[in-house]
Structure to design on (255 residues):
């Protein structure tokens, strides 16, 4: 339910004398954010965007993350914290024993309201094994948002026969996320073989002239295959967020 639908429902309840005007006014005045001093936790994001606020763990102290998680927990929201180091998790887990740490993805999740898994899937495809940490960030994010995920790892162009062995599985996906470092050619190859939206993620994996992912990024931006959208270097989370929105469009159309 959106924020606008909430307000409309509240106004209808007042009109039908199901709630007092003073109580309705109090609900409307409830703060859409929780001011912690160092952070203002956005409590209305789910109503606006369909997904709760996500905690970016890098650059925050464990104590700050604990306080933000406590705010989200008090307001009964699902928690997803990205780029969380194992050291910080060790400090956090005593405060949140129900939280799950996904080590490869560097993601912490605590699910208050599990989402129904989509009938359609997101395929997460990597060029190499070294790209798996970025791929797992994408896969875990997508799963947290209720998507069925198919992982197809280490099928890069250096051994392109490996890709063809999984082509039917990739083609069956509603959205494809292709993750590649080095020269980033895999996105163009897959883009020419599928009829689904493709989100390309360049990674910082590669030798010197990879330039920390810039070479792969440029290759993907200049792809001759149509239908490719490119996110920032190593941004598995951003790719999964967009892929989830696309994948859930089918569910909306079904209703």
């Amino acid at each position: 339910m959106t924020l606008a639908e909430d307000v409309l429902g509240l106004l209808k309840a007042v009109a039908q004398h199901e709630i007092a005007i003073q109580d309705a006014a109090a609900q409307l005045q409830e703060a859409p954010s929780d001011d912690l001093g160092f952070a203002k936790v956005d409590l209305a994001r789910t109503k606006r965007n369909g997904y709760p606020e996500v905690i970016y763990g890098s650059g925050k102290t464990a104590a700050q993350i604990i306080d933000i998680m406590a705010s989200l927990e008090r307001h009964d929201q699902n928690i997803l914290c990205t780029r969380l180091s194992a050291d910080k998790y060790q400090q956090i887990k005593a405060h949140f024993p129900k939280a799950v740490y996904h080590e490869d993805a560097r993601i912490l999740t605590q699910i208050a309201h599990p989402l129904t898994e989509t009938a359609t899937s997101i395929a997460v495809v990597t060029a190499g094994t070294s790209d798996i940490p970025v791929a797992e960030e994408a896969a875990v994010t997508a799963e947290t948002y209720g998507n069925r995920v198919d992982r197809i790892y280490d099928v890069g162009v250096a051994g392109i026969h490996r890709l063809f062995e999984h082509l039917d599985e990739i083609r069956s996906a509603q959205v494809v996320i292709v993750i590649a470092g080095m020269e980033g050619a895999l996105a163009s190859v897959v883009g020419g073989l599928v009829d689904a939206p493709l989100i390309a993620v360049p990674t910082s994996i590669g030798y010197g002239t990879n330039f920390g992912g810039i070479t792969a990024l440029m290759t993907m931006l200049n792809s001759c295959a149509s239908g490719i959208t490119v996110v920032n270097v190593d941004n598995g989370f951003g790719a999964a967020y967009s892929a989830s929105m696309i994948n859930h469009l089918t569910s909306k159309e079904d209703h």
